[in-house]
What we know:
Number of helices: 2
Structural class: mainly beta
Oligomer: single chain
Largest sheet: 4 strands, antiparallel
Number of domains: 1
Amino acid sequence: MYQDSTVSADETGITINRYGLTGEKRISYDEISSATVFNIGTTGRWRLIGAGPNRFRSWYNWDRSRRGKTKAIEIDTGGFFHPTVTPDDTDAFIAAISDHVKVT
């Protein structure tokens, strides 16, 4: 189990807070093909879209503290846009989802 102000992971899936117009996105683990960890770099810390492994297919949630973070996780659900999160504790988030999802 993992939870911070932007994302949470439990036994059934991931909930992304402040995502798109709906405000929240719930993704069950069976919808996820894989998750990719990457360094977001200086310009990526300010973006809402882009700057991921698939460039303009990464869609970030709103995270006011992203400017101080260095890693993000892109979640491949098979759609065109890939939800991308910047958890406060990347290692703890990966540990929480790694039993359910292939993380690269």
